[in-house]
Amino acid sequence: MYGLGAAPSVIREIANYGWQRAAEVGAENVYNFSIGDPSVPAPDAVKQAMLKIINEQEPTGYHAYTPGPGAPDTRAAVAENLNKRFGVDFTADDIYMTCGAAASLNITLRALISDPKDEIIVVIPYFPEYKVFIESQGGVPVFVQPDEHMNLDVENLKAAITPNTKAVIINSPNNPAGVIYPEALIEEACKVLEEKGKEYGHPIYVIADEPYRELVFTEEKVSFIPAVYANTVVCYSWSKSLSLPGERIGYIAVPKGFDGYDEFIPAINGAGRALGYVNAPSLMQQVVRDCIDVMPDIKPYAECREALYDSLVNMGYTVAKPSGAFYMYIKSPDGNSEDFAERLKKYDVLVVPGTGFGTPEYVRLAYCCPVERVKKALPAFEKVMAEYK
Amino acid sequence: MYGLGAAPSVIREIANYGWQRAAEVGAENVYNFSIGDPSVPAPDAVKQAMLKIINEQEPTGYHAYTPGPGAPDTRAAVAENLNKRFGVDFTADDIYMTCGAAASLNITLRALISDPKDEIIVVIPYFPEYKVFIESQGGVPVFVQPDEHMNLDVENLKAAITPNTKAVIINSPNNPAGVIYPEALIEEACKVLEEKGKEYGHPIYVIADEPYRELVFTEEKVSFIPAVYANTVVCYSWSKSLSLPGERIGYIAVPKGFDGYDEFIPAINGAGRALGYVNAPSLMQQVVRDCIDVMPDIKPYAECREALYDSLVNMGYTVAKPSGAFYMYIKSPDGNSEDFAERLKKYDVLVVPGTGFGTPEYVRLAYCCPVERVKKALPAFEKVMAEYK
């Protein structure tokens, strides 16, 4: 635990440098693209929902313990919303409210992993905390290389599956690459999991980590995996979609066709208890219930994305297709992302080297920021490209 | 995890029965004393603080991620409040904000326990989840019998310490017994820990679980243990003091004199990360900062306590001295608490048998309820005592 606490998260380290640097030279002169903190405010509906609850209800109601899996009406609202949008048939029983996506993932992993040999496959590039979570819940992370477009590579996935494979984490729209895995790829991957599961005599689950589900800038469809593969646990969070990252509110959804459903639902309850999660924050459970159909305003992110993408490509950069989330994944001209990040840093442009995400030749640029910051940072990219040429 | 999720918590089971029964015969006819859910509403200052934050600040501020250990100003406010009240010298660095007491305890246990042989001593009677938390964080719970007044027994504590003892959980005011461990006893116990620590060549820590610190009905002083024994981790929650149980907000406090402080603070950060706690809920962090000096209105609990205690004693019941918290611990006239609870249940009076708390001869009555409920339940106790006589 000491190592985990003492080792700086690279993202946080760069963000902290940026905040210090802003104090020295002025915030307007630092182009801090390090951290995925939503710049779009929570929709006004969130504020109105909070005020209505606070002004019209008794505090002994909205501040009270809820049942461990969450308030029944919130769970029902989540189920209904998923059914309406994705043609599935969840009920409140299938939904377990959590303190955000990190809680969703840890509870899911704790409930799934039963043997220290259990392997959880992670598709590169990946959110670095996956490794921490898998290891701390007693499993072994196994990393799978993507294709050259930073997409899921089904052949690589297939090759990584062993008799010990318990689950695969799928994160699309992807952090850090911003890509959306094409539907056909997801379906092909699920077919492989189905076959391998039969071959090894036990299901291979998908953990669909979906905090960026609502942040999509193209016509591409984000697969809702339980609709095509029942052995899927959905881990969701409103951190990005409703811009509530500090409030820690999310859920786990398990379809009734999930192999071992009757044991897995109690196991989720047990894992929540074992990790000290009593219930998801109670006021926020009511807020997300009341805002269940509210969609984020992604226009500000779309503007940043447009301002960046074409310019970077025109300058000669290779960039993963930024279809969703609010990250741009940019290849270092010479393949060394640490050096690339250092060169940009000289111009006070702060990005995160891809080493921790599993692709040391890329950097991640988080464009959840005012569009002016993006536009003013472009000349630095131009100059750095000139240095390489 | 399945076992943990499938096994019903006795308290929840009885509470659920009470709610069902209320639907059948009317809530006014069921005397549900099973669960420790505060009946006193959160002070109005909490509502005003929420409204002020929501109406005056930008949502990108109050809903944002905070640093993992919490917002600096909230941590500073907690430190200052402790210093003012208890003559200690905490700084913001010593405070780690959490998602409630269960999170505080699990993070602390995870940071402390480093070997599967590590033992954590629990003083009987105890909150049943301690066992779950210690085991799920990889340690061995060791239970210590109290004296006949349900107080800490220092000789029993001393006898339970082994070279593997890592820490002792002290919970005063106590759930379920309502007793406050006398200052002299606490000091004596800390002296024993000091000596045994020297004998075994490693510190024996205290984990002071203090959710009921502010709920005191007598002139007895609740020891603030770090002031007398620096090897103490305080685990606090505002669930009971500000009646915010559903919001999940609390803290961990570690004094600078704590043996291994420089490693333990990062270990707490690491444990929080490993359990999936990103930060304590952000809006509530601001609320508790703004309400740091607000004390609960405990008059309604005091009324219930008075209405119950003398009457029960006059009827011939043996009751642990109800000095704090909002629990009355009542001995079964024949020493069988399961049977005692069953007899009361026939009159729709619902209490929790003490088996899960480690004292099978007592029942716990949670008097966080309207005083009328308490008064109307007294005749049932009279009738049950007559049955025994």
Summarize this, please?
The first copy, chain A, has 389 residues and is α/β, with parallel strands linked by helices. The first copy, chain A, has helices spanning 2-6, 10-25, 44-56, 59-62, 72-86, 101-112, 129-136, 154-160, 183-200, 261-274, 282-290, 299-315, 337-345, 371-388; strands at 31-32, 95-98, 119-123, 140-144, 165-170, 205-209, 232-237, 250-253, 327-331, 349-350, 352-353, 362-366.
Describe the structure.
Two copies of one chain form a homodimer. By secondary structure, chain A is an alpha/beta fold. Chain A has two domains: about 1-40 and about 295-389, Alpha-Beta Complex (Aspartate Aminotransferase, domain 1), CATH 3.90.1150; about 65-290, Aspartate Aminotransferase, domain 2 (3-Layer(aba) Sandwich), CATH 3.40.640.10. In chain A, about 40% of the residues lie in helices and about 15% in strands. Chain A is built from 14 helices and twelve strands. Chain A has helices at about 1-5, 10-25, 45-55, 60, 70-85, 100-110, 130-135, 155-160, 185-200, 260-275, 280-290, 300-315, 335-345, 370-389, and strands at about 30, 95-100, 120-125, 140-145, 165-170, 205-210, 230-235, 250-255, 325-330, 350, 350-355, 360-365. In chain A, the strands form three sheets. Chain A has a seven-stranded mixed beta sheet with strand order 2-8-7-6-5-3-4, sandwiched between helices. In chain A, strand 5 (about 165-170), helix 9 (about 185-200) and strand 6 (about 205-210) form a beta-alpha-beta unit. The longest helix of chain A is centred in the middle third of the chain and has 18 residues, at about 185-200. The first copy, chain A, is globular, with a radius of gyration of 21 Å. The model of chain A has no long low-confidence stretch (mean pLDDT about 95). The interface between A and B is large, with 67 and 66 residues.
